[in-house]
Amino acid sequence: MPVIRRDLVADSAPNAQDTGRTEEPGGTMTFFEHLTELRKRIIYSLYAIAIGTFIGVYLSKYFIAWINKPMLKALADAHLDPKLIYTHPAGALNLVLTIGVYLGIVLASPIVLYQIWLFVAPALYKHERGAITGFMFSTVVLFLGGIAFGYFVTLPYLLHFLVNPGPLFGLGRDVVPMTSVNEYFDLILLVLLGMGLMFELPVLIFFLSLFGIVTPQFLWRNARYAIAIISVVAAIVTPTPDATTMLVFMAPMIGLYFLGIAVSAVVTRRRERRIAAPAEAR
Fold first, then answer.
1. Residue ranges of the domains in the chain?
2. pLDDT number for residue 221
3. If DSSP codes are grouped into helix, strand and coil, which group holds residue 200?
4. Cα–Cα distance between 170 and 11 in angstroms, integer?
């Protein structure tokens, strides 16, 4: 009767801790197959951006009217001529093309994100796919929330000050703004992108908590230092010296910081449960 070695049987048996992972082994492509797949996803993304740019150039006239509205209102409220100018012969064309490119990137972003997902997803396990999906959704929602806050809340305060500097600097009514539409678009882009990135603070805290770099206790203990740093950042980012506009920048950042503490608490609790589960099983 043959003798069966128990150590060989034990080695051949599947590890109970790896059972969940062997169900979905992830991608098995070679290095060159990965490069080919990456090239395909990049080409599809560029096609999407090019098509989106054509559509964006067509829609730019409506978008220009939308972004000009806060400035025209601020000029009218200041009893000034509500008009924007361009100082270069190709200024209007340059504005249309620039806005078309930005709109094209925005319109193509769902397709670009989907191409990134198609490239990354085969190498992920089921629970990792769910986490990445939630992360991408949260990132987009927070960024759009920051842009909306910047357009509807921050810009009115900012533009009201910029077209009415007389009370602060003692300028007379003979000093009036002659605003270039191209420079105004640069200001709009700076404010909206800045607010969109500021609203990504909970996502940053999520990653730091995921890798154990910060904890909710650490964030809570150092809240006063964080508020001080936020004040300095708001003072630098705010293009005007008045305190009201700086407070408008600070308020959402402080709120997002405390939202990040709640996110960190959830992430840390789940991370501790995952670490404790194998120890309890043993």
1. 30-199, 201-282
2. 92
3. coil
4. 84
